[in-house]
Amino acid sequence: MIESLTTNDKALIYTECHTRIEGLLETETDLIAGLANVSAVLKEAFHWWWVGFYLVKDKQLVLGPFQGPVACTRIAFGKGVCGAAWAQNETLVVKDVHQFPGHIACSAESNSEIVVPVCKHGAVVALLDADSEHFSCFDETDRLFLEKICATLGHLF
Ligand code: SME
Hints:
By secondary structure, the protein is of the alpha+beta class. Helix content is 36%, strand content 26%. The protein contains four helices and six strands. The longest helix has 20 residues, at 7-26. The chain starts with 6 loop residues before the first helix and ends in a 6-residue tail after the last helix. Methionine sulfoxide is lined by residues 50, 71-72, 75, 80-83, 103-104, 106, 110, 113, 129, 131.
């Protein structure tokens, strides 16, 4: 991650990411191709430890396109930060993952995390997950902009 980003810095970078993502998805409707490039755009922009998607399949989450180290492939409903965000159908911003009951540590390097639902017709179809090696990396600005980005992804499903 880029250290010490101000809210304005973040907003600027997210706005550029959003424009890039809209451009990429204008011409691509394939789910895997689309989500792979969304992960790449965010990784290039913010250099987070890990960023990618978990897809809802057969009542569990299965690892989808991502950028970063190897991650766990399946997460049950309600389990970990991802499973909790799925169950609650809301974004979870976790400033210290070690304090989150049931956090699933795919990587020992991760210290903070944000998980944002992607919905189609109101139902969660995937989750965007970003992890940082820094504590308190994510805040309300990340929530706001990542929710906007995720709101544009439902049509891929
Ligand atoms: N930490 C997540 C698991 C996924 S990895 O971070 C990529 C969780 O608790 O659900």
